[in-house]
Amino acid sequence: MPSAVRFGVNYTPSEGWFHHWLDFDLDSVRADLDSIAALGLDHIRVFPLWPYFQPNRTLIRPRAVEQLRALVDAAGERGLDVNVDGLQGHLSSFDHLPAWTRTWHRRNLFTDPDVLQGQAAYLRTLAAALADRPNFLGMTLGNEVNQFSAGPHPDPDRASSTEIDTWLDRMLAACAQGAPGRLHLHAEYDATWYQDDMPFTPAQAARRGAVTAVHSWVFNGTAQRHGRASVPAEHHAAYLVELSKAWAEDPHRPVWLQEVGAPAPLVPAEHAAAFTEATVRNVLDCPDLWGITWWCSHDVSRRLADFPELEYGLGLLTNDRRPKDTALVLARAAAEPSRAVPATRTTALVVPADPSLRSVCAPGGAVYDAFFRLTADGARPTTVLGTHADDRDRLARRGITEVVTPEQVLPTPQGGTRS
Length: 419
Known about the structure:
It comes from Streptomyces phaeofaciens. This protein is 34% helix and 14% strand. It is α/β, with parallel strands linked by helices.
């Protein structure tokens, strides 16, 4: 039986990076898409830059929308489905926000009524423009927009979790109004799961939108603490997938590994293929995985300045569209003719339900360390909220037969272990 897991890539244009929207060249886009399709992948995630598409709150440029439609059509001609990120937002260390939200027009991205009206109109317009395209998967609200809502961003648009609830509901509704029935979701970086004061919460990630999205990057302290070939590094993506399930109400809610990559120098280029193979193998052992979307398709050109060094070499393909060893690893996984459905994970690690305590799930935290100790012992753990740990019906729906706390797993100060 063919695998139901989707394999794709985040599309970074080989010419001009995402600034290609300013000098849109469909022939160049087609050549990029040919190189992606040749890997046997089935979808891409694309990034309109918000200031280029909506430079004024009441101006959504028709020509930019038509160029997006042309890109989606070109992808469809090559057998590629497309997810579209709307509010860009933040990409590869750069913020891309329209002038009508900054400096002299400074307004909160998550609470200002005029900004919300403009955002909703923009998302609805993009979704509606693609609603009749059979290869349009749906909208992601934006790329890691939670980084605007709290530190360490240097100028955050602060909001409460209740205000973020309202923002998410309104933006997802706008996408659904534009393109009913499609796969609309939101996606944040891992501070949602790890940072105590982040107003975007795990419950929001696991309950709002069509699927849960996780973004896995081992430069978050994982590779620094444990090394590139460690159990935590090679299972970090699987950890985030399983961590998300503690907050999900649906016991079989799909989880999308929407971003994952092999960042140098923590994962040197000569070891990137091995890291990719281990990451993919381990995350495929997670039940209810929707898909794996690698970051990213093509390297950033060295002619572009001021990117962090790691960003230049993250592509599956070089800037002149040649596949790297990492691309071949992903292509082999995508081409696997059949794959057994992962067995249910029957051991659940208890996670605090209080989001102000979520740092215990971060690198160095008790939940994090316990999860990887269990993994190293072959236990294949998942997670459950402490408030659900004694709910037999809920545990049974998930197939959980054993519940353990971090204290029962972690080494004692004397060096022994608690059973």
